[in-house]
Each structure stands twice: as structure tokens, then as C-alpha cells.
């Protein structure tokens, strides 16, 4: 049971990584002058859309958590709207946190907001897919001994590593190397992306190596 | 620049560059040399100056490039050599003047070499003047003069290089090793202090003895080998001796039973943070951008604290976590943690707002310094000036009101002791004085001529009056630091019944330790009984708080009294930053207290994250009060606050004023450091209050006497375990010193390793000097803060002893 779960987890994560790689290469066939650094905002939007789409598809196909009891259309619609609202809220919250951390308040608003969007894509969207718009469940997953399945464990790891990557991405900004990727927020978005990818790779491996110690009370 | 594009280092490629000169006339009469000549960089200044017909700058010791002064178009013979000799003579004269002035002020030039160069110059100038008077002299004579002058200039340069650009690698390494050993020692003793067999007294005496022994041995050695006694070396040996003893003892006692990981008790995230801080001192970009970097690190630490609270389940009340098996056993800390998220966001907001008052480092064109750092007097618009003045006075009043509110909240404002009276009446006076001084200084130009004398007089008197008030307040605080209500218990009739298990005067410390908590609890009961009789409604535990917050009340009062004169030394609008400073340290203390469980009697410890956050906040405030660790941005105007006419010849007073302005944040945070230990005990009362609120007053009044035992003891818990209290204070001081110590170690290492770096004089060396001064100020402040706590402790002891004796009579 557990091993099969881990295998499925690995495949879904590989698909997510693949979608990020695609978002780098596919647009250059359709758009002229596309490059990750120069048309960064465009890439942010495309990458966000790709990752969200892959996450949604995987959620529908794999169904990691038990399906909810109610399945009426209105319930699904309200759930979807709630998810959208949560996603927007998380974008705004991230934006506020970036500003509190020292991002410029008025200049580069669009850049900062898109950065918030991509970070939400890496963190909030998987949470929404896996746990639904349920804040209590989120708070439970991100606390000690709060995870109840392999999926939640990997969610924890990828989210934390995305945040860590974002945090580390801020460090090159003051250096005087004068490289194009040192500009706000490019280094942070790249850091977030690398952190997310690293989390995607690490979490199945980590869970596989520690599968003896991990005991989930639900399974 | 190297082939990889690096620059600023000391490799051959980085320190040499091509010199390209263009001249419409031929410069080289003969064919130019095969291997091009090397021209030192400092020779550019005199050459360009003379070519432009300007005087050579006084401090220059370069040598003009003689080839550039060959005037060929002139028809006269020897004119080219004469022009070269003239240029060199002008240059040599300037260098000679500089050398004389310098040697009169400093003694670091070699005497013999100096005399030789002196003679060389007099001979060359005599030759030159003689040639000028009899211009029919031969070409050869001119050439000798040129050679002599060049020899003089090169000799001066060589002598100065030998004397100035000298790095004593042995001393650098020794100093760094000493610093590292001291830091390690702080860590070691902070670790040791919690072990049961730890005694304070040998810690002081034995190292002092070892240090003295080291000094004596070293002085003896130096005397026998007839070397000069160097105080620096002696001091180093003394420090090494005192450190070596403890290190050796630790090495011997370490053994193999303990793992090496126990040596680093710092939790891993905080260790990472300290490492980043350590490494950032080695990059000139990070030192220049430290104001931003420190805010980033502080924000990260705060979010980390909040996240950690949540991770451990202390952030949210258990009812939010729906699944019942996840609700861990509920402790009292859970209730406090509910607002930790709000505290964290508030802190981030405060830090961001304080960041608006930044001053840009030099040579960063994209950065604009905050316009709010300039004094109000420089503002033009009358309306805006009035608004700003109102805001500044509002900040002052808010600061005062906050402190009074805090003291009232813990009941310390009820006491009739002189320091409390001072807080009630003296502090508003200080606020009034400060506001009046600001009004005068910002509008001094608009005063009518008749009042000029009055204005100047007031601007002398007012700052001195505020400083004097603050000093007298501090003295009062030192004289009577106990701000508890003594009269309430003196006439209490039931005191004897409580003390029946203990008869006779307390003879030993152990007796006193036994009696003190009893008296405390009895006081609570007594006051509660009175309140019960007089009014059933109202805060029942008010009187109990007075002794429970006696340490922190003294600390907060002292900090406020310190802050006002420091505030006066800054520009008016910095008062908003000071308000933010108090607010954010209050929030941080609350946030930290939410994560610390209250140990009832065990060893009290202050966690590393608390100490690191405190040190980071001190640096952050240094930057947000408009300072930068470079000399041009020192606020020199602070020296004239209260002394608008200058200081005459005395230098220590202006130095003190400017130093107090520059290192105000270091001083305030170091003095306030003991609050880190005290605050969790203060927060104990809130938890218990909240818990009891649903009961209602009547029910509580009935169960009063029984519940007296569970009443929050707050800071009296510290008195219950005096040994642990002392150890905790020592440990707190050592931890703070360690965090500061690794900063200064990093600065020293950076300045010594990167001594050939392009930015060493611009960035690393000033940073090191500022950090070293800040470290000294912080150490003194820390010592003062701990001494104040000890003084309060002693005063509380004698106060309680008097109570006991009064009862027995």
C-alpha cells in the first residue's frame, strides 16, 4: 500500500517537474524573443498556468484523498469558487509579506504580485488540490505530527522547500555581480522554482528512505 | 581586472593597468624605452595638477612624470631639462612641506632616513636655486638636480610605504585567535552554567590570578631579554592566560563521555542565521547593504519564531485543530500563543516602518536617503513643519503614555517610592523640555530679534535640564529601586499567623529563602482581603503585581530615562523611530515569551533565538536611526546639542555626545537585555488572568485564600531560586556577548584577510572600527543592565528583611 503510494507520488512529481521544463521550452515556439530572464513576467504567467493545470489534472486522475461524500453540482461549484478565493487571498497575503520583508511598495508592483502568484502556485495550489479549502486541515498538516498520509507528507516537504528556495533566492540581490538575474524579483522566483523542484525530487526519496519510521495513523 | 572579470583583489592583473597619454607635441626626444616604465598611481595627481597649472594637493607624496614636462617648442637650450627640474622642484617642495607637518604630528617615520632625506632635499634645492641664478650652467648639472629630486621623492615614498602600509600578521592572527577563544569561552561557560556543580566564585578569581601570573611572567621575560614593554602584548598575554586556564580545564574535563554536538547547543536554524550573519561581513556588498540585510534576517527570524510556535502547536488554541487526537495536553502557554501571529505581523510592520528612516551608503546612485532624517529647521514649508512637529511631540507623548500605562498595568505606578514619583512627574517634565527645545531649534530663525537672547539661552538650558533630570531620575532609581507598596503590609495584623512555622530572626540565607515567598503570598492575601472588604468589583490582583514585576519595572524605568537624553541628541523626527523601537522590542519580548515555558524552580534559561533576535534588533535600530558604519555619516551636530557655542578646547564631552548619538541603539538594547529573562515571568500573569476571567469576581473572592497558593508569583519565582537566578543572568550576558563577539570576530577577520582589498579603507576597516566601538558600548551597557538587576535584587532582599524584622519586634 505504502510503496505503491510512494511510486505514484514519484510519478506525479516527475510530471510536475516536466511541466516546469515544458513551460521554459514550449513558449519559445510560439512567441518571439521569449526567454526566462528577459520576458520574465510572461514566463511567470505561463509557468504558473502549467503547474496549476498539471496539479489539477493529477488531482482528478490520481485522487490522493478519499472522495468527499457529497458530490452535488452546487457543492462542487461552491468548492471551486472557494478554492479560487483562497488562491487569491494567498496571493495577496504573500504580496503583503514580501512588502513587509522589504520589497518596494509602489514600484514594481506587478512584478511583486506575479511573484506572489507563482509562489502561491507552488504552495497553495497543491494544498487546495489535496486538502481542499479547509484552513484547519492546512494548519494541521503544517504542525508537528500532523500529517496523516504520504501525500500530506510530500506536500509538507515541497511547500517548505519552496519557501526556503524563495528565501535563499533573496541573498544574491545585494551582490555587485551585475548579472541580469539579480534583479528583484527574478532571483527570488528562480529560487522558488528551484526550491519547488528540489522538494518534488526530495520528498519521494525522503519518504522512501524513512518509510519505516513514518507511521500514519489513518493508513 | 582578471581574465574572469574579478576586480578589487591583489593579483598582478588586478593592480596594474595601462596608462595612455595623448599629447600634440612629441614627448620623448629619444626613442621610447622598450619595456614601458611603471608609474605608481599616486603620481597621477601631481602630474595632472601641474599640467593644469594648479597647486599640488597638500597630502600628495607622488612624483610628477618628468617626461611630460619637456617643452620642446621652446628654442632655448636646456629648456626641456629646466622645465622638468622646475616641475620636480615644485613637487619636492610640496612633499617636503607635507613630510615636515606629518613628522611633527606623528612619530612613526624612521628618524635616520628622515634626516637623510632632509639633507638630500636641502642639497638639491640649493643646487636648483644656484642653477636658476646662473642659467649658463651645463646640462649635466641640471640632470644631477633632476636625479637628486627624483631620488628624494622616491625615498619619501619608500619611507612612507614602509611606515604606513605595514600589517603585523602576527598581531592580527593573535588578536583573531584571542577573540575566537573568548567567544568559545562564552559558549562554554553558558553551557556549563546550567550544570549542577557550577560555582560562580572560582570563575572570577582563578582566571584573574592566571591572567596576572601571565603578565608577570611575560614582563619578566621581556625584561630579561631587554625588549621594550609593549602594553598591547601584555594585555594579550593577560587575556590569553585567563582564557587558557578555563579552556584547559574544559579540555581535561571533557573526556569522551560527551558528544561533540553538545558543544554547539544553539538550535540549528539560529545557528544557520548566525553563520549567515558571520559570512556576510566578508562581502563588501553585504556590508554596504547591511541595513537591508539585517531587516531581512530579523524578519526571517521572527517568521521562524511564529512558524516554530505553530509547529509545536502553541500558536492556536486546540479547538481549531479539529481532530481530537492532535490536541496535545493543554498547557497555559497555549492561551498566550493565540495572538503570537498578530505579534509577528506587528513586528514585521514596525521593522518595515522603521526602515523608512534609512540613510543611504555612499556611492549608491539608485538609493535615496530618507528626507525625514534632516532636522526640522531645514524644512521650508511652514504647514508641513508644524505637522511634523506635532507628530514628533505626539511620538514623545505616546512613548511616555505607553510607559506609564505599562507601569500601571503591573501596578507599579501606585507605589509612593521616589522613582515612581519621578516617573509620574519628572518624565512629563522631560517631555515638555524636549518639545520646547525642538520648537526653539526648529524655529530659531523665525524668532523676533528681541527674543534672540532668550532663545539662545533656552536652547542651552533646556537640553542640559532634560539630561540632568534623566540623571537624577536614574540616581533615584539606584537609590530606591523597589517599587512595591510597602505600607499595605506593614500594619497587617495577620502577618504573625502566617509566620508561625518560623520563629526567631532569620539567620541564614536559607531561612530567608524560605520566608520570602511566604511573605509574598501573605501580602497578596492581605491586599486581596482589603479589596474584598472595600469593593467587590475591581482588579483583585493589582497589589500582587507590584512585587511580581519589581525587576522589570526598574528596567523599563531606567530604559525610558536613558532613551530621553539619547532622543534629544538625534534629529526631531527620529523620535518616531524611538517610539517604534520601544514598540517593537515590546512586541518581540511578548512573542519570545509566548514560546518559553515558565520553569517553576529549575534552571532558568533564555533561548538562543531570543538573544540573537535582540542583537539583530540592536543593529537594525542602529541603521534605522539614520546611521551608517562610515565616518562621513556620523551625526556631528549631536556635539552641539546644549552647547551651541561649541566646546572650546575640551574634546571628551563632544566625543561623548557624538558617541552617545551613534551608539544609542547598542546602549539601549544592551541595558535592556535582562528583560529577555524577566519577560516570560511577567507574561505569566496574563495567562492566569485570562484563565480566571470566566469565573467572575464573587466566586473568586470566596475562594480567595485557598487560591492564594496558585497566584502567579511572576518574577518572585526568580527570588525563590537565587542561585539559578544568578546563573541565568550570567548565562544571558554570556550569550549576548557571544552573539556580539562573533560579529566583531567576523569584522576583524574580514579586515585582516581582505587587507589588500580595494574596499578595505572604504568598507571593511570603518565597519570594524564601528563594530568594535559598538561592542565596547554594548558590553558596558550589558554590565550596567545586569548591575541594575542585581541592585534591585539586593534592595528587595533588604526590604523584605526589614519587613520580617518589623514583624518580630
TrEMBL record, chain A:
Protein name in UniProt: Phosphatidylinositol glycan anchor biosynthesis class F
What pathway is this protein said to act in by its record?
Glycolipid biosynthesis; glycosylphosphatidylinositol-anchor biosynthesis
| Alphabetical UniProt keywords | Endoplasmic reticulum, GPI-anchor biosynthesis, Membrane, Transmembrane, Transmembrane helix
Topology term for the membrane? Multi-pass membrane protein
Its GO biological process annotations read: GPI anchor biosynthetic process
Subcellular location per the Swiss-Prot or TrEMBL entry: Endoplasmic reticulum membrane
Q: Which residue ranges run through the membrane?
A: 9-29, 41-62, 83-106, 112-132, 153-171, 183-209
Q: Which GO terms describe its cellular component?
A: endoplasmic reticulum membrane
InterPro entries recorded = GPI_biosynthesis_protein_Pig-F
From TrEMBL, chain B:
Q: Where is this region: Disordered?
A: 688-711
Gene3D superfamilies according to UniProt = Alkaline Phosphatase, subunit A
For whether the record's keyword set contains Transmembrane helix, the answer is yes
GO cellular component entries: endoplasmic reticulum membrane
Name the chain's protein: Phosphatidylinositol glycan anchor biosynthesis class O
Q: Does the keyword Nucleotide-binding apply?
A: no
Q: Which GO terms describe its biological process?
A: GPI anchor biosynthetic process
Q: What is the lineage of its organism?
A: Eukaryota, Metazoa, Chordata, Craniata, Vertebrata
Amino acid at each position: 500500500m505504502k510503496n505503491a503510494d510512494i511510486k505514484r507520488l514519484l510519478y506525479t512529481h516527475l510530471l510536475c517537474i516536466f511541466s516546469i521544463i515544458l513551460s521554459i521550452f514550449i513558449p519559445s515556439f510560439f512567441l518571439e524573443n521569449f526567454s526566462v530572464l528577459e520576458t520574465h513576467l510572461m514566463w511567470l504567467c505561463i509557468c504558473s498556468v502549467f503547474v496549476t493545470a498539471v496539479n489539477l489534472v493529477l488531482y482528478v486522475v490520481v485522487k490522493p484523498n478519499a472522495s468527499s461524500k457529497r458530490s452535488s453540482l452546487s457543492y462542487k461549484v461552491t468548492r471551486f469558487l472557494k478554492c479560487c478565493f483562497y488562491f487569491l487571498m494567498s496571493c495577496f497575503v504573500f504580496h503583503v509579506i514580501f512588502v513587509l520583508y522589504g520589497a518596494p511598495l509602489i514600484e514594481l508592483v506587478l512584478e511583486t504580485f506575479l511573484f506572489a502568484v507563482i509562489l502561491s502556485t507552488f504552495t497553495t495550489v497543491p494544498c487546495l488540490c489535496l486538502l481542499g479549502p479547509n484552513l484547519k486541515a492546512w494548519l494541521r498538516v503544517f504542525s508537528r505530527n500532523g500529517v496523516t498520509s504520504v501525500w500530506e507528507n510530500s506536500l509538507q516537504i515541497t511547500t517548505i522547500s519552496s519557501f526556503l528556495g524563495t528565501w535563499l533566492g533573496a541573498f544574491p540581490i545585494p551582490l555587485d555581480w551585475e548579472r541580469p538575474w539579480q534583479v528583484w524579483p527574478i532571483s527570488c522566483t528562480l529560487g522558488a522554482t528551484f526550491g519547488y523542484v528540489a522538494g518534488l525530487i526530495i520528498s519521494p526519496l525522503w519518504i522512501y528512505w524513512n518509510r519505516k519510521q513514518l507511521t500514519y495513523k489513518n493508513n | 581586472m582578471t581574465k574572469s572579470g574579478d576586480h578589487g583583489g591583489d593579483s598582478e592583473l588586478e593592480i596594474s593597468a595601462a596608462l595612455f597619454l595623448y599629447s600634440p607635441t612629441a614627448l620623448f626626444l629619444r626613442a621610447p624605452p622598450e619595456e614601458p616604465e611603471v608609474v605608481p598611481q599616486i603620481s597621477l595627481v601631481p602630474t595632472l595638477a601641474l599640467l593644469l597649472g594648479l597647486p599640488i594637493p597638500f597630502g600628495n607624496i607622488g612624483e610628477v612624470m618628468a617626461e611630460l614636462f619637456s617643452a620642446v617648442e621652446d628654442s632655448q637650450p636646456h629648456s626641456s631639462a629646466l622645465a622638468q627640474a622646475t616641475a620636480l622642484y615644485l613637487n619636492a617642495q610640496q612633499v617636503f612641506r607635507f613630510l615636515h607637518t606629518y613628522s611633527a604630528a606623528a612619530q612613526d617615520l624612521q628618524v635616520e632616513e628622515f634626516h637623510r632625506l632632509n639633507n638630500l632635499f636641502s642639497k638639491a634645492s640649493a643646487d636648483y636655486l644656484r642653477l636658476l641664478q646662473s642659467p649658463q650652467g651645463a646640462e649635466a648639472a641640471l640632470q644631477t638636480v633632476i636625479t637628486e629630486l627624483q631620488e628624494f621623492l622616491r625615498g619619501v615614498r619608500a619611507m612612507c610605504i614602509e611606515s604606513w602600509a605595514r600589517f603585523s600578521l602576527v598581531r592580527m592572527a593573535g588578536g583573531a585567535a584571542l577573540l575566537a577563544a573568548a567567544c568559545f569561552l562564552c559558549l562554554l561557560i553558558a553551557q556549563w552554567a546550567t550544570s549542577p556543580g557550577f560555582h560562580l566564585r572560582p570563575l572570577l578569581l582563578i582566571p584573574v590570578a592566571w591572567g596576572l601570573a601571565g603578565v608577570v611572567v611575560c614582563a619578566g621575560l621581556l625584561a630579561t631579554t631587554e625588549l621594550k614593554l609593549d602594553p598591547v602584548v601584555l594585555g594579550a598575554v593577560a587575556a590569553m592566560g585567563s582564557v587558557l586556564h578555563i579552556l584547559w580545564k574544559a579540555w581535561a574535563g571533557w573526556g569522551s563521555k560527551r558528544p561533540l554536538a553538545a558543544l554547539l547547543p544553539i538550535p540549528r536554524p539560529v545557528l544557520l542565521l548566525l553563520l549567515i550573519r558571520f559570512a556576510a561581513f566578508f562581502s563588501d556588498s553585504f556590508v554596504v547593504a547591511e541595513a537591508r540585510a539585517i531587516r531581512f534576517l530579523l524578519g526571517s527570524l521572527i517568521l521562524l519564531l511564529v512558524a516554530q510556535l505553530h509547529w509545536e502547536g502553541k500558536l492556536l488554541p486546540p479547538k481549531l485543530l479539529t481532530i481530537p487526537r492532535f490536541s496535545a495536553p493543554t498547557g497555559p502557554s497555549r492561551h498566550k500563543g493565540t495572538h503570537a501571529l498578530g505579534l509577528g505581523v506587528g513586528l514585521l510592520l514596525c521593522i518595515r516602518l522603521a526602515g523608512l528612516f534609512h540613510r543611504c551608503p555612499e556611492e549608491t546612485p539608485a538609493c535615496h536617503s530618507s528626507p525625514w532624517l534632516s532636522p526640522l529647521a531645514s524644512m521650508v514649508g511652514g504647514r508641513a513643519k508644524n505637522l511634523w512637529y506635532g507628530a514628533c511631540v505626539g511620538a514623545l507623548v505616546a512613548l511616555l503614555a505607553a510607559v506609564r500605562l505599562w507601569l500601571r498595568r503591573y501596578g507599579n505606578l501606585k507605589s509612593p517610592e521616589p522613582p515612581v514619583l519621578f516617573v509620574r512627574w519628572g518624565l512629563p517634565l522631560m517631555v515638555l523640555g524636549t518639545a520646547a527645545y525642538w520648537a526653539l531649534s526648529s524655529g530659531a530663525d523665525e524668532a523676533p530679534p528681541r527674543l534672540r537672547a532668550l532663545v539662545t539661552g533656552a536652547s542651552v538650558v533646556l537640553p542640559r535640564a532634560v539630561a540632568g533630570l534623566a540623571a537624577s531620575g536614574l540616581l533615584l532609581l539606584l537609590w530606591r529601586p523597589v517599587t512595591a507598596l510597602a505600607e499595605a503590609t506593614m500594619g497587617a495584623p495577620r502577618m504573625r499567623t502566617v509566620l508561625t512555622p518560623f520563629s526567631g530572626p532569620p539567620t541564614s540565607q536559607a531561612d530567608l529563602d524560605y520566608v520570602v515567598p511566604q511573605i509574598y503570598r501573605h501580602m497578596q492575601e492581605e491586599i486581596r482581603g482589603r479589596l474584598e472588604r472595600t469593593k467587590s468589583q475591581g482588579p483583585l490582583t493589582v497589589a500582587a503585581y507590584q512585587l511580581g514585576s519589581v525587576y522589570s519595572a526598574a528596567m523599563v524605568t531606567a530604559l525610558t530615562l536613558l532613551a530621553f537624553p539619547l532622543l534629544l541628541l538625534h534629529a526631531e523626527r527620529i523620535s518616531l523611530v524611538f517610539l517604534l523601537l520601544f514598540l517593537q522590542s515590546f512586541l518581540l519580548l511578548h512573542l519570545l515569551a509566548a514560546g518559553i515555558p515558565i520553569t517553576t524552580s529549575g534552571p532558568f534559561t533564555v533561548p538562543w533565538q531570543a538573544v540573537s533576535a535582540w542583537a539583530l534588533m540592536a543593529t537594525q535600530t542602529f541603521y534605522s536611526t539614520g546611521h551608517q558604519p562610515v565616518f562621513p555619516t556620523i551625526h556631528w551636530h549631536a556635539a552641539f546639542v546644549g552647547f551651541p557655542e561649541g566646546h572650546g578646547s575640551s574634546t571628551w564631552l563632544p566625543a561623548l555626545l557624538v558617541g552617545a548619538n551613534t551608539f544609542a541603539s547598542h546602549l539601549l538594547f544592551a541595558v535592556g537585555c535582562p528583560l529577555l529573562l524577566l519577560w516570560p515571568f511577567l507574561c505569566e500573569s496574563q495567562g492566569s488572568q485570562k484563565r480566571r476571567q470566566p469565573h467572575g469576581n464573587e466566586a473568586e473572592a470566596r475562594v480567595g485564600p485557598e487560591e492564594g497558593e496558585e497566584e502567579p508569583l511572576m518574577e518572585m519565582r526568580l527570588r525563590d531560586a537565587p542561585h539559578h537566578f544568578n546563573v541565568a543572568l550570567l548565562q544571558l550576558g554570556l550569550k549576548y556577548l557571544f552573539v556580539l563577539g562573533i560579529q566583531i570576530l567576523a569584522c576583524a577577520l574580514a579586515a585582516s584577510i581582505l587587507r589588500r582589498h580595494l574596499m578595505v579603507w572604504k568598507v571593511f576597516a570603518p565597519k570594524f572600527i564601528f563594530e568594535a566601538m559598538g561592542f565596547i558600548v554594548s558590553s558596558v551597557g550589558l554590565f550596567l543592565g545586569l548591575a541594575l538587576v542585581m541592585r534591585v535584587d539586593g534592595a528587595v532582599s533588604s526590604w523584605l528583611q526589614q519587613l520580617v524584622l518589623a514583624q518580630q519586634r
